[in-house]
Amino acid sequence: MHRSLFLVGGTLLLLTGCNASKTPENKEPVLFTVAGKPVTTTEFNYVYNKNNSQPDNAAAKGSVQEYLELYTNFKLKVTEAEKRGLDTTTAFRKELEGYKEQLAQPYLTEKNVTDQLVKEAYDRMKQEVNASHILVNVAPDADPKDTLAAYNKTLELRRRIEAGEDFNTLARSQSDDPSAKENSGNLGYFTALQMLYPFEKAAYNTLKGQLSMPVRTRFGYHLIKVNDVRPAQGEIKVAHIMVRATPGIPKADSVVAKKKIDAIYNRLTRKENWDKITAQFSEDASSSTNGGELPWFGTGRMLPSFEEAAFKLTTVGDISKPVQTPYGWHIIKLIERRSLPAFEEMESYLRSKVAKDSRSELNKTAFLKRIKQENNFQEVKAAKDFALSKATDALTGGTWQYTASDKEAKEVNQSLFTLQDRQYTVKDFFTYAQKNQKPIANASPGHAMNVLYDNYVTTSLLNYEREHLESKYVDYKMLVNEYRDGILLFQLMDEKVWSKAIQDTVGLQAFFEQNKENYKWDTRADAIVISAANKDILAQAQQMLTTGKYELVKSRPEPILFGAGKDTFTPETKEQLTALSDRLLGDPLLSVTLTGNADSKESSGKNANLANRRAQQVAAFLKEKGVPVNRITATTNKPKTVSAANRNVSFTLFTSDLKGIEETLNAANPLAVQVQNKRFQKGENKILDEITWKEGTYNLEKDGRAVFIKINQILPPGYKSLNEVRGIATSDYQAYLEKEWLKELRQKYPVQVNQAEVQKLTQK
């Protein structure tokens, strides 16, 4: 979790950015002090200007004087945290080091190389390549002999293909890519930034119909056959209607979802209004209110099935048949097509992708080369040869240890390489090697030691540069300070404000009572709104409404079975009944009718009341589990023909939730009826807003649907209860606690402001 750097009245202001500006040598005058600790004009000016450069940050648009007040409050909190020693804990130091590592990343790159890679990626995105490959596995750190063997095997496969053997057949039999057995190595169409960089580079540099030379990635060596090259499809904007159906949901729910999407599709094919259908039925909350519209996207940026269906749409306004993805079912409507956006529009996206892509290794190589040059990297060959000569077989097993003899003490302590005036000794390298070694199968000791040496040099260069970032870049230094203060304040703000407001229930209640005027309802309507596909369905819904109890057919539990002449439970029966009792206890609106059954042979003698006993046994079990008596009804049926299936207790579930009307009437058509039952405020329901708010019932038509409204009560303006506004009231209480805490801090730590410096800032 990112911690706040500048906490203002509970608002978190994130101060970001990294310009490669050098730290000024001249000290700036002090702007103000808190408990004698100075805050310089440079520090304040940096933070103030950075926040003012963000136009959407309302808190940063105030005057210098207002901002000075906010920043002083911030520094008062930091001072309190330091006085309490929060900056000395192990947890604090560990967290700060983690953030420093993240903050350092933009400074540990080579900008000109990044620029080239971004432009190259954009140019390649103008085309899409369809390619197949054959993979020969070899680990990234494999011994040279194994690497050579894999290369030669790949080269031999290439010779066989060039000699006339079928690529697809060889891919199925020889490729180490498991999917090749199914797809003959075909990867379909792709564009830049969707494959590992070496693979992408080779694919784009190979002509259509041609075969590449062996290409090395972290998976091994690839042979790439380019099947086709086409201009980029560009980007499209679509809208969609979604019905959720995630993998693993109950089969009954999956069937309902499919019926619902099919019903929606049928209505759309009859040219019903897309936006209205979307608003009524789409289950993508983020897009349903704007006609289901999604952001622009191109090849490889959506789920494959969704993307394929979307790009098949050719005419604006066309809609797809229902398409399934892991999220559910979608109907897609084409809104607009466009070619690849201009470079300026995509640059930010491309930079983000390049930073995470395998091509970043090129950037790292160039960066390390520059750091070597800037810091006069000097390697001592004799010392390196000595260090590498100490590799033994234990190194490949990850158990290598080295203890210098008296004779070798001088060699071990000699300089291996230098950066500026810092020496890195053979001993330092051996310590690193012992700590970072790991087993490497089929590798020679010499190769393992060379890998460790290269990694040690890279690590040393990066660490050296990290250590000097604060002296080289003012932005980095300021960012580190901001994160440091943010980490300190998080714990203190949680203690004094955030968690305190939640845990102090007495204080929250008192604050709420003192400020009740801030928490009032406007006029509300306690109403039921039923929207139906036609008047007949609406009439059925109104009839059901009068009963107040609705059968749940779809989720009816399976009957429990008994042995012939038996009314006792098996372990499986008890498990089934426990699940039913849990369901009833979890939903107080549910009730159940138990129907005892017996076959015709069980209807006489001692078994004459067996069906009733079975029903009563089940009822007693549910009561013991805590289900209220008034939610259980036990009945019996007349004996039926002799059959094991007739020796049971069956269940009928009812709910008093009006959503039960939906479940019943939507069985055949999932769009038949929608029911809302709540207290509405003005503007919350468009249909309700169109009628006069008076108690009574109303029938009308809206957007081709029959609508019934029953207003049970008009609630006048009144005070809200704390439970109704707990979230808002808690937030307000937090602001109050922070304000009171700042009063205490100002009394505890004197603040002195250099008004002459403030005057200079306000005149800029």
From TrEMBL:
Cited SUPFAM superfamilies: FKBP-like, OmpA-like, Triger factor/SurA peptide-binding domain-like
UniProt GO MF annotations: peptidyl-prolyl cis-trans isomerase activity
Top-level taxon: Bacteria
Gene Ontology CC terms, in alphabetical order: membrane
Signal peptide: none
Transmembrane segments annotated in the record for this chain: none
UniProt feature coiled coil, ranges: none
Residue ranges occupied by any PpiC domain in the UniProt entry: 126-228, 233-336
Stretches assigned to the OmpA-like domain: 549-657
The keyword Isomerase belongs to this UniProt entry's keyword annotation: yes
Keyword annotations from UniProtKB, A to Z: Isomerase, Membrane, Rotamase
Subcellular location: Membrane
Classification via Gene3D superfamilies: 3.10.50.40, OmpA-like domain
PANTHER family assigned to the protein according to its UniProt record, in alphabetical order: PEPTIDYL-PROLYL CIS-TRANS ISOMERASE HP_0175-RELATED, PEPTIDYLPROLYL ISOMERASE
Name by which UniProt lists this protein: Peptidylprolyl isomerase
Naturally occurring in which organism (per UniProt): Adhaeribacter radiodurans
